[in-house]
Amino acid sequence: NIMPVPLIDFRWYHAVNDQHKLDNVLASSAKHTQLHAIEADIIYSEAKGQSVMGHPPQVDGELTLALLLQQLNEANFQSTSMTDTDANILKLDFKSMKALQASINDVENYLKDLPHQLHQHVWINADILAGPGGKGEDMQPKFDSVEFIQLLTSETSMMKSTTLSIGWTTSLTDIHAPYTMDMIDEMLTLLRSYPCKNITFPIRATSVLTSWEALRKLYDNNVDENKRWTLTLWWSLTSEQHKMTKDAMNRIHSLLESDYQSILPNRTFYDLVNFSPP
What we know:
By secondary structure, this protein is of the alpha/beta class. It is built from eight helices and nine strands. Helix 6 runs parallel beside helix 7. The two termini are 28 Å apart. The mean pLDDT is 92.
């Protein structure tokens, strides 16, 4: 039995939404010195009539999703690995249902060229429920949660073997606003109806310490021993007012990784700018 790679060992590249950033990741991953995880954002371009890389409020981008996937495929970004435990991760963060629907063919073509056991290392991400930090219009999810999950778990979908990365909208009004028990229960209730095997929950790292009682429930929920759900902590802002302190990161790491008797260690990915394990 091959020991899985510690999740903390993945080196994350956030917002790989242009050619320059993509070139950097591919140059780095070609050295095979460590595992890489790409997080890339996808919007729908009305001008181009297709999905492109970009983050709202952008409405267009230079790099299309098709071209990004083609280059990852040609560079064997994921398929150099033949074991399903140590492949690079590709997290595709869809910003609207229209962007996702326009991308299905491109993603399925990419999956066709990837060994089936590596499909779980392609993550399809969306904020499907309302989350912490505000009540405004921008806090309303751009997805119908049931429609999203049905699309990705349907028997006919090639994407059913990917990992669902499903989270909550967030607002910068209060970066420490907690995920509430109601928010977590809403997600767990939603998932009861679906045979979702591979799931990771993207959680804003600045809210972990204020939300711990609620977030704990996500770790308690084991589908089965081989398919334990994970969390992916994310944060990329570095301005004085928004940056995460080293101390906060270390406290979170200690909370999640130090109690070997518990179900917590090695269940969390750390997509945090300037994070290095203590």
